[in-house]
Automatic annotation (TrEMBL):
InterPro entries: CobQ/CobB/MinD/ParA_Nub-bd_dom (IPR002586), DNA_Partitioning_ATPase (IPR050678), P-loop_NTPase (IPR027417). Residues 3-169 form the CobQ/CobB/MinD/ParA nucleotide binding domain. This is Chromosome partitioning protein. It comes from the Bacteria. CDD domains: ParAB_family. It comes from Kribbella kalugense. PANTHER family: COBQ_COBB_MIND_PARA NUCLEOTIDE BINDING DOMAIN-CONTAINING PROTEIN (PTHR13696:SF96), P-LOOP CONTAINING NUCLEOSIDE TRIPHOSPHATE HYDROLASE (PTHR13696).
């Protein structure tokens, strides 16, 4: 199963989402592959630098070009899980990844400018591939969060989860995975599994 974490913008939570989901995908003695398609290699660095044991069963593949991406995707066994962390604003590479995706995760933040960006990514996703939003670093008690959720509901855009803003999540590789971050991403993970079964 190939899961692509897609956004056409940096700083929305793609890498954080990819790492947490890869950790969940590799629980229960399974391994998962985290395919880092961003030349910055922040997902690969995270896995390399972190002491968190929950990241031990993640295999990392650095694949910042079309050729390397295809190669890394080919290596994911049929029963395995590959999670692709995409760079921002590389639409060509994103399209290549989306062609091979079973599931697409679209991390976003709350804010008026984010909605058209989310829609632009949704347009790139092939019709038969399930896609859902993850609202990252959310302040759930704010009015702008409530309004954003209402808008997505009205427009029929699926939101698969909300990840609260947490200092422990910002810590990235310098700290362990945040317990409540994992709890929130677990809900997203269940949506992914449900979408993959349908
Ligand atoms: N739930 C969260 N709470 C707090 N900070 C977060 C959260 N999710 C992401 N961040 C922070 O936001 C910044 C951008 O996230 P990142 O995952 O690197 O985004 P991208 O890969 O899209 O550029 C990072 O500093 C990251 O630690
Ligand atoms: Mg990133």
């Amino acid at each position: 199963m190939i899961i692509v974490t897609a956004a056409l913008k940096g700083g929305v939570g793609k890498t954080t989402t990819s790492v947490y989901l890869a950790a969940l995908a590799s629980s229960n003695r399974r391994t998962s592959t985290l395919i880092d398609a961003d030349p910055q290699g922040s997902a690969a660095d995270w896995i390399a630098e972190s002491d968190d044991e929950q990241l031990n069963r993640i295999e990392i593949a650095e694949a910042p070009t079309e050729r390397l991406l295809n190669k890394a995707l080919d290596k994911v066994p049929p029963e395995g899980i590959g999670i692709v962390d995409m760079p921002p604003s590389h639409e060509r590479l994103l399209n290549k990844a989306l062609e091979r995706a079973r599931i697409v995760i679209i991390p976003t933040r709350v804010g008026g400018v984010e909605t058209p960006r989310v829609k632009a990514v949704m347009e790139l996703v092939p019709d038969d591939v399930p896609a859902g939003l993850v609202i990252c670093s959310a302040r759930t008690y704010t009015r702008s969060y409530q309004e954003a959720m209402q808008l997505y509901a009205q427009e029929g855009i699926p939101v698969w989860g909300t990840i609260p803003e947490r200092v422990s999540i910002t810590a990235g590789p310098t700290g362990p995975l945040a317990a409540d971050g994992l709890e929130s991403y677990k809900k997203v993970w269940r949506k992914i599994l449900a979408a993959a079964r349908s």
